[in-house]
Specification:
heterodimer; A: alpha+beta; two-stranded antiparallel ribbon; 6 strands; 18% helix; B: mainly alpha; 0% strand
């Protein structure tokens, strides 16, 4: 029995080291805790880089292939609930997804694993906004769309044309 | 080993060592590089920005091939993606430095033989995914973007191909 414990302890150590990525751990820690009153789930952490945790790694929450948040406007950053996010993959396939009450949308690899690069457009309240540049390889919108906007970020994804027009 | 044998071996190797030492470059010698054209680079830079320079790929400071441009990473601290709308002259200059600085000796060899065998360059191999590239194939052999890059390496930039490889909204500073 003690031998079994030793083997289990050794295996768990190996798994812990294999799963350890200090850079990713720091990035996740920098996101902070859950917002007050919001439980982990489809409505949590709007505007954060979903695939940091939803990466399919052992012990992490369910994997996403693409995921992000659409905000209605730059001023008060209300979620764009019910926006339609259309992703067009380089192999010609495309899929559309609806944002939820938090403005979040997510795609699981079981439902679709798109071929990069991707082109994206958002329809919200009968207005269409298309992203100017392609998504090269990262399925998390907020890996690039970080607030505040600066030389390496256009800011969050906004559904209003005058704001979202600056999104790369 | 007898002393006589040692002496014979020394006699054989000593001249070889002397010749090898004399064949080494002088300590003040410098590599004379021949780099691709800077004047026709703006079109090439914009093609690279479009195909390789998104913020999640080479439009980030963490990469060896670091590309600045209007659609991605901006050079000026006060700029943002698409604001100002066009790739600036400073960004094109930074892109040139980045591209030619990856493998300057190999690039010089490629340019010296009029762009022959550009696949010697990691830049080309990665772009075409001839070797592992996390971003997949950013260019495809024979397409306009590929011709643009190859022609630039051959010092005969096919500017028409470069422009065809860009969207209608192409926007970059000219020298």
């Amino acid at each position: 029995m003690s031998q079994l414990f030793r083997v289990a302890a050794m295996l768990s150590s190996v798994l812990w080291f294999a799963a350890c990525d200090p850079v990713q751990d720091d990035a996740i820690a920098a996101l902070g805790g859950e917002a007050s009153g919001v439980r982990p789930g489809p409505l949590h952490r709007p505007g954060q880089p979903c695939l940091l945790c939803h990466d399919g790694a052992f012990g992490d929450p369910g994997e996403f292939s693409v995921a992000g948040t659409v905000f209605a406007d730059r001023i008060d950053k209300q979620p764009a609930r019910g926006a339609t996010v259309t992703l067009k993959a380089s192999d010609g396939t495309s899929r559309s997804f609806q944002t939820n009450a938090a403005g979040n949308f997510y795609v699981t690899p079981q439902s679709w694993q798109p071929a990069y690069p991707l082109q994206v457009s958002v329809v919200f309240q009968a207005q269409t906004v298309s992203m100017t540049s392609n998504i090269g390889r990262d399925g998390a919108c907020a890996s690039c769309h970080v607030d505040p906007a600066g030389p390496d970020s256009p800011g969050h994804v906004y559904a209003t044309p005058e704001d979202a027009g600056v999104a790369p | 080993m007898s002393l006589g044998a040692f002496g014979r071996l020394s006699a054989v190797f000593a001249p070889a060592i002397v010749v090898a030492a004399c064949a080494l470059p002088a300590s003040d010698a410098r590599f004379s590089e021949r780099l691709p054209d800077r004047d026709t680079f703006p079109e090439v830079a914009q093609v690279l920005v479009r195909h390789c320079g998104t913020l999640d790929c080479h439009g980030t400071r963490a990469r060896n091939l670091r590309l600045y441009g209007n659609e991605g990473l901006r050079w000026a601290a006060t700029d943002q993606p698409l604001s100002p709308p066009c790739t600036t002259a400073d960004e094109i200059e930074q892109d040139y430095i980045s591209v030619v600085g990856l493998e300057p000796e190999v690039m010089s060899e490629v340019v010296t033989v009029d762009g022959a065998d550009p696949e010697r360059l990691t830049l080309v191999r990665k772009a075409l995914e001839l070797e592992h590239h996390k971003g997949g194939a950013a260019l495809h052999a024979g397409d306009d973007a590929d011709r643009c890059l190859r022609s630039w390496l051959a010092m005969q930039t096919d500017q028409a191909a470069c422009l065809r490889a860009l969207p209608a909204t192409k926007c970059f500073a000219q020298p």
